Amino acid sequence: MSSTAVPPPVTRLIDVLSRLPGVGPKTASRLTYFLLRAPDELSIELSEAVGQMKALTRLCSVCYNITVDDPCPVCSDAVRDQKTIAVVEEPLDVLALERTNVYRGVYHVLHGAISYVNGVGPEDLRIRELVSRVEAGGVNEIIIATNPGLEGDATAMHIQRELAKLPVKLTRLARGLPVGGDIEYADSVTLMRALQGRSDM
Amino acid sequence: MSSTAVPPPVTRLIDVLSRLPGVGPKTASRLTYFLLRAPDELSIELSEAVGQMKALTRLCSVCYNITVDDPCPVCSDAVRDQKTIAVVEEPLDVLALERTNVYRGVYHVLHGAISYVNGVGPEDLRIRELVSRVEAGGVNEIIIATNPGLEGDATAMHIQRELAKLPVKLTRLARGLPVGGDIEYADSVTLMRALQGRSDM
Asked: d(Cα A116, Cα A118) in Å, to the nearest integer?
């Protein structure tokens, strides 16, 4: 990218974009040249949106989701069931649960999962804060909604131990066949979980 | 994305990112939440890089590639062969040719290809400017390096007609099997071209 055929402001944007996850040098070039050809407004808006997002947001002091106001609209919503807390790894998981339109409880965002390979221990996550929330009382159920994998499972087990002595119901999202999936192509672990978790018809 | 769980500055960035090519709502969310968790410097740098790129660059008045200085470093490079012009569709194609490290001529960027389906005619491209460049004299060879497809071919044929009366050699990039490719998986048109263009060993 150091060719004289590429001016420095273009190289710079390609370099920055390449640091985003899932964006390699080729995608970064493609996006950059797209922006060059697009109307100026798009670049201006993108520049502003990126610049302002961090400045205008923070973490909710109750659930640690990203928010403008603290506490966040979910935590301060009297209509929602404040006694049920879904524990998720990332803010994006909150979005996914909100999209179901069936969950009416609140959240607790851990900001990661326990991963000894990546050097992430329980103390790096918002687990202490979750325990405090439960200790403060008024919580009926904790729905552990960590990802269905090694790290999510390790995190779930750790939380289970931490909350064992507290008077709260602990549940976990069901494992099984994804809706619209095909048994023929299901991996054996998923199929095993689907069998174990089978329900009466 | 209108859920109360997503603050407006976050929704805004997701929306803007979704307007980039190849970036759907899911990728846009992923990139946005990555930026939220990344150090502030990355957001600041991205914001600046996007904002400045368009302000600092323009099109070279000779070859129409993107540049800071006009004429661009390639067009003003006395060491390069200014008598050989590679005609490409996009600035990214210049990059690709530069990466070969064998091409020492200059460029002419058309900024598109003729596509009647998309309403792009010859007058929308920098073809007139190419003809003027050749008419001005001093050009020995035009290497047509448009994409090997319907639109690139239509563009190449149009340029061929436009330059027919001028004393300039016209060549085109070879078609054939991509290096590292597999004959078994080559499409029949490519294989046909590879056969037609076979060379003595």
From this structure: 5
**Fold held by B66-200:** Dna Topoisomerase Vi A Subunit; Chain: A, domain 2 (3.40.1360)
Substitution target from A44, A54, A75, A100 for chain B, most B beta carbons within 10 A? A54
Domain A3-56 has CATH 1.10.8.420: yes
ipTM exceeds 0.85, yes or no: no
Model confidence pLDDT, tens digit, residues A42-53: 999 999 999 999
Nearest CA-CA partner of A93 in A56, A53, A63, A49: A63
Burial string for A115-152 (b: 16+ CB within 10 Å, else e) reads eeeeebeeeebbbeebeebbeeeebeebbbbbbbeebb
Q: Tell me phi and psi for residue A171, to 5 degrees.
A: -130, 170
Query: Per-domain residue ranges for chain A?
Result: 3-56, 66-200
| Cα dihedral B121, B125, B130, B135 in deg (nearest 10) | 50
**Is the CB of B74 inside 8 Å of chain A's CB atoms?**
yes
